[in-house]
Amino acid sequence: MSSVGSVLYDICIIYTRLFIFKKVIKKWGTQPIILNS
Description:
rod-shaped, 37 residues, mainly alpha, single chain
């Protein structure tokens, strides 16, 4: 049960990072500023 919760927790974090990453990309466009951070 704890392993399933851990997997779901990891998936939630991954999706949150992808959502933030997409927002940052929309904000900066195609500029490679993200890669330099």
